[in-house]
Amino acid sequence: MKLTVNAVNFEMAERLEKYIGKKTARFEKMLNNQAAEMEIRMTVVKPETNLNKTTQVRVMGNGPEMFAEKTCDTFEQGVDLCLEVIDRQIEKLKEK
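Given the sequence above, the corresponding structure tokens read:
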């Protein structure tokens, strides 16, 4: 699975990159190589207020495209919530 991480309007810290890598590693096994690419896009929305960090996760591959978007206080929280949504979408797909 190819993982692409895009940071918009901010410089991503190495700690955040490692966190994303750790959280997405389990999807390789879950998808059984069905997904060709996972794209994560993180954006800081101006002006600086609470809940100004938007995270989008898109999974593209052989099956249907899966997408999740969340706006949170931190990117870590946004990644967690988006991956939970993708997890549920994968479970629904496997049930069919």
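The chain has one domain: 2-95. Try to locate this feature in the token string yourself.
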